[in-house]
Design brief:
By secondary structure, the chain is α/β, with parallel strands linked by helices. The chain has a domain at 35-84 and 117-151: Vaccinia Virus protein VP39 (Rossmann fold), CATH 3.40.50.150. It contains 5 helices and 6 strands, in the order H-E-E-E-H-E-H-H-H-E-E. Strand 5 (136-141) and strand 6 (145-151) form a beta hairpin. The longest helix is centred in the middle third of the chain and has 14 residues, at 60-73. The protein is globular and about 45 Å long.
């Protein structure tokens, strides 16, 4: 749902973008240059923390650390949108090579799919050893995408 549609429902969005590289930050939002593994915000600063197509760049321990940091600074939930590792997904990336203009895109596409997680791995990494355990919802979507909601523990 677009921000303009949310405004019609009485919901306003205040977006804060974060990246280690200033060149990756969008114009028009509050932008912070920082490390996602050490978020420079106080506890419960945001309703939601979201990451899109970022989780597969993190090793399992780093992903768990990111989610712990994101859970610290959010009030409700951490949202993750990412790739799913699958042989057919990798084949589609190779099939798309003729459309890719840059060798960097070819390398990154292959590396991203190979490093991506499957839903079972994601659930294990995000819940392993947590006391109390977190409520985690994972859904899969068209073209090898997954959505993850890590609900903030309230007690």
């Amino acid at each position: 749902m677009a921000a303009s549609q949310l405004v019609k429902k009485g919901i306003t969005l205040e977006v804060t973008d974060l990246d280690r590289l200033p060149s990756h930050l969008q114009r028009g939002h509050r932008a912070v240059v920082a490390d996602a593994l050490a978020l420079p915000f106080r506890d419960e600063s945001f309703d939601l923390v979201s990451c899109s197509l970022f989780a597969h760049h993190l090793a399992p321990a780093e992903l768990a650390r990111f989610v712990n940091e994101a859970a610290r600074v959010c009030r409700c939930a951490v949202l993750i949108n990412d790739l799913i590792r699958h042989p057919l997904h990798l084949a589609l990336v190779y099939a798309g090579f003729p459309l890719m203009q840059s060798p960097v895109s070819r390398f990154d596409g292959v590396a991203s799919v190979r490093r991506a997680y499957v839903p079972e791995e994601m659930r294990h990494m995000l819940s392993n050893g947590r006391k109390p355990p977190r409520r985690i919802e994972i859904s899969t979507h068209y073209l090898f995408r997954m959505g993850v909601i890590v609900w903030k523990n309230t007690g």
